[in-house]
Design brief:
This protein is α+β, with helices and mostly antiparallel strands. It folds into five domains: 182 residues, no CATH class; 119 residues, no CATH class; 100 residues, no CATH class; 167 residues, no CATH class; 183 residues, no CATH class. The strands form four sheets. Strands 4, 5, 6, 7, 8, 9 and 10 form a seven-stranded mixed beta sheet that branches. The longest helix is centred in the middle third of the chain and has 38 residues. The radius of gyration is 34 Å and the shape is elongated.
Amino acid sequence: MLKNWFKIYIHNAIKNKWFTLLTILGLAIGITGVIFSTLYWKDETSYDQWNTDKDLIYETLSVFPIAGEEWPTSVEPLPRYLKEKSDKVENYCWFEGWYGRETFYVDQKKVYIEGIVSTDQNFFDFIPFKFVKGNVEDFRKNKYGIALEENEAIKLFGNQNPVGKILTNYDGRKMPIYGVFKGNKFSGFQPKMVVSNIYTRLDDVKDNWGSYGPGLLIKLKDLKYKSEIEKLGTDLFYVNNTIKNAKNEGMSIEEFSKIYEPVKVKFQSLKDSRLNAKVSKLPEGMGNMLFIQINLGLSYLILILSIINYINLSTAQAIRRAKEVGIRKIAGASKRNIILQFIMETTITTVVAFFVALALVEVGLSSYNQLINKNLEIDFISFIPNLLLIFSIVVVLAGIFPAIYVSNFKELNVLKGNFSRSKNGIWLRNSMLVLQFSIATFFIVGGTFVIQQMNYLVNKDLGFSGDQIISIRFRRQDLGERKFDFYKSFQQDLLKIKGVQAVNATVFTFGSNSAGSNTSFRVKDKQLVTENMAIDFGFLDMMKIKVIEGRDLNPTISSDTISNVLINETAKNYFGESLKINDEFYWNDQKLKLVGVTKDFNLGQPQLKIKPMMFFNFKVVKWLNANVDNIIIKVDTKDTKQTIDNIEKFWKVKVDQDYPFEYDFVDKQFARSYENYTKQEKMFKILNVVVITIALFGLFALSSFTIERKYKEIAVRKVLGAETGSLLKILSKQYIYLSVIGFAIAIVPSYFLMQMWLENFAYRISVSIWVYVFAFVLLLSLTLLVVLLKAYSATRINVLNYLKYE
């Protein structure tokens, strides 16, 4: 029986090769999209799931209710006090939320290492990478120790065992290598080197309840204690921060709390930090849950579109096999046998489509990785459950409808020969076609909104000009607070290089969302947290940032190096009349004076709300001198490459011999900050092409079949004098009605989903009715183009061929 079914399938596949090819290719494209998006989903949702203590480890957040902000940082005394006052805290671990780069000396040889995590001795109790050489206990027992990632150890030492070797850093500190560990690509930490040297930073803020620095992980003995320890942490802040500061300012606790609402402690599960959190300090950064959901959802929509095509074409094609089904039923075949046969045929088609899809995945995976900035690989063994699930969905949805439809054919109607003119199955095909039009409308509308939003961000006035300005990483950590003075010593020499027009220094990087530090201060009854924007004189003019009130900082005015500052529009709007030009206020126990207000500009991603900022010269705040991270240089448009080459030569000789010369153009640096959204735009464009192509192929095939069934009717109408225009109208009007219905169904869901997506942007377009007008015109135009092409060819038929036997 199965052999006969298989022969029948092969015969029909060859006989209707274009139908077979179209259905296989359509299903293959849909399956390919689902495999891609499932790979991405599995990758992102696997982060830190391997960690056996993931349910007990929490990232500590400091919540500032008045500012409405959560910071993934804490203060030095908090974990010590928590551990002292509660036996329910297992341990804690401090870490820097970025990867450092540093030059070390080993056996008088200089080595440059990137991907360094600065942490404490407890790191491997929280992120349990397996040691392949050395002993993790030695790392736990000793401060200022090093552990190397396996591949980095091979890169630096070849086949030698690095355990026991001594690395010397920039300030002469000798640090032993205690072990070599095997990393995990699904970890929020993926370091090349782990160094337990964070103590130097913590010692500077010891017992300070107002200085927020590194990230903090807390491990509890049981997850049921989470709320209790959060409350204990909040109470500790209240006693050691709120009460003490209120007393120092001579205010009652109630009055003080109205201005400085007490800080709250919040624990965020390690397993949630990647995708289910607002903020995180883990150095691998956060994923984009919305993008993942959109990616997965759209891929399944395309698969549904492919299945609809299959159902439509299968039910239409089944008319041609009606006589076969009727004869088999007369011969004794049961309804169950007919259903099983057609499901088997769908299964074979799906198997072939799967092989084509896997080939497409193999070919397209590198391009997909480039699009989403990942390094996905498909492990067929571990991916088998997902493949089986996708396979089952396709077979069930694509196989059952046509099979049941065919099995319900009435033998007498079929064998009388008039079944081909019946309207049996039209409701199903029309319903599927309406759904197809709805999906196509959703993609057209969604794609248009995404493109418009990205164009808005790209063309939005950023408030600064990064044209022909390069940013150079300025490391030299050995200089400490002498870093700014050292920059001033070579600034004039850089200006003498041909093609260099201006030179400045900053603590921040364009394209980042923070200046690296921020400070809370109060003016009268209003409190605000501002980004600390330390700059050199001439920065605002160099970046074409406008001063809209007051004046810019001036090197000829001595007070501009002592106490004078500027704030941006956002900060000024918050304070209103409470803070005016030439007003004085206290900031970190330092008396400052406001001399100007700058126009708002985007420091980081243009879709995010601009933060309050305060600008001052480096000499105003001494401790920021050590934070000079970027030297920015404006270069001439003529012979830019030669100018940069000359800067590099100077840099390596006069500025930094230990670190590689690294630069980037500010405009490109900034563009990378919203790269995820530009990738979403590209993905929507690609998916739009795929969806519209699949929909048009299906529409063409279905309209071809439907119109071919009306050839005799067309011939009769032509004999009776019908004109071509009236025939085209008759043949196409049902598809116009169906497209209108499909478009109408898609309006409400597409509106709400796009509103939800646009909520991710502080600066966004509004939902315009003209997008829907465009989508409707495009949908109708493509529908008419496809249908009228086939309808017009139908009006050219030779009527004698269809009426000669009448």
